[in-house]
Amino acid sequence: MSSNNIPALHSRILSVWYRHYLVYTRNLVSNGLPPFLEPLIFLAGVGLGLGKYIVSMDGLPYIQYLASGLLVTSAMYTASFECTFGTFIRLEYEKSYDGMLAAPITANDLILGEILWAGTKGWFFSLAVLIIVSLFGVIPPGASLFAPVIGFLTGIMFAAISLTVTSFVKNINHFNFYMTGVLSPMFFFSGVVFPVKSLPAVLQPVAEFMPLTHVVRLVRALCQGSYQTILLLDMLYVLVVSLIMGIIAVRRLKRLLIV
Amino acid sequence: MNEPVIQIDNVFKSYGSLRAVHDLSLSVPQSTCFGFLGPNGAGKTTMMKMIYGKSLRDHHPESRIRVFGFDPGTQELDIKFLSGVVPQEDNLDDELNVWQNLYVYAKFYGMQKKTIQRRIDELLGFFELSAKTKSKIRELSGGMKRRLVIARALLHTPRLLILDEPTTGLDPQVRHLIWEKLRQLKKEGLTILLTTHYMEEAFQLCDQILIMDKGRKILQGPPAGLLREHIEPFVMEVQDIESAEVARTVELPKHVRRDCSHGRPLFYAASFEAMEPVTRILGHGTYYLRQSNLEDLFLKLTGRALNELQ
Lengths: 259, 310
Description:
The complex is a heterodimer. Chain A is mainly alpha-helical.
């Protein structure tokens, strides 16, 4: 015997996504403006300052080099914040998950909905950066139009990683270690600010191990319109890491949600 | 005869070395109200959570939980689709208004927009919240939030309503309103399962109560029947400290039982007359005679001292 009207898996995951969408869009100005403002500030800072000293990097105008990296770092940061602080607050303080899990939603549905929502935010933040840098002619139009897709994948991957981190955290302040100890170094050493090949030889494999390196390479290839075989490996890396970390996140968080 | 809505046999639940529920069995018939009573840490909420799959029971060969015939360990979705849950906390979304809170929750049940609109209107009317439709959550009083959470649990017209301390912290007016609404819902065929610390609430609403302590069932039955069978019908409470000292030394007549609540004696007996030898010594205005209630029974069974979880 079974209740035939139980929503299907995709509906259950989307209903979690919809809840986050509705909550996020209630504060449209405070939530929707920063993704557009940040690249503007960045363009002003780099264009008026740093760009005068560093003209080109890896064959690209430096401002274009940096802007293309920013397309995915914005996705990385928003997904990471969403799935660390956001998830922890919903779990421990707001008790939102208790309410959601009282409805016909499993812990798996809930976690997959979280990941999908973080991917969506990654897409949106990438899109916002793309709109601003395109308006200022920093990145030429073309294949870069697909950059938000890489933003989405970046969001998914960092959501899975961040949820795994969250499953270990007992105190909200512990996220500072992840933010400053993992994400910040990744920002600087993953080819966003300067090429990975400029790193000392001993550190280059470390950079290749970092998830951000691979999405930066993918998005920059799109922006340049220059595709190499290594991109297939980058794509494979993103998919495998998202899958493995996603499975770990689901298994570990489930233990916190269903006690 | 109808199958019980909930059938629980020999259920255990442990958190590490702490045994939260120990060998609990119970049965809840359709369209009745069943209440769990017990001090903090007795295992009431854990038991409730196991019923809708938010918590998993320990593996034990004789353990069995069936809700509408479904096992919450493997068929939680079927159970949750037929049940509404009101958790202890008012976990509403502060960013959304009253209507949006209900709307987003209805989406979890896959309800259609038209049905959602109609149901929200009905429920806001039923819980006297129609004027608050567009209000923000922070503008609501505690009683309004509680009613909204109960309304949220009823959106999909469940057959079982699970309430974890539904009126804790609410003023008597709101509490009585919620009781009245729950009575109406029960009359319409809803089965209700609740935990409460308010003995009056259990007495007013429940057809059956189960008193738990340290994870174990102490007593189960209809409230009036339990009172009749397990405690003397009358009680005398001594009011002031001086009289308490006197009362402590009184030689008790036969069939009068003395209890002590934090230094203050209480006397229980089958009639007021039986306590006359004590009242004569104490004098007027130093004691208070009343009928025994569920709280007296509860304290008799679970003790008056605090445990380590309280």
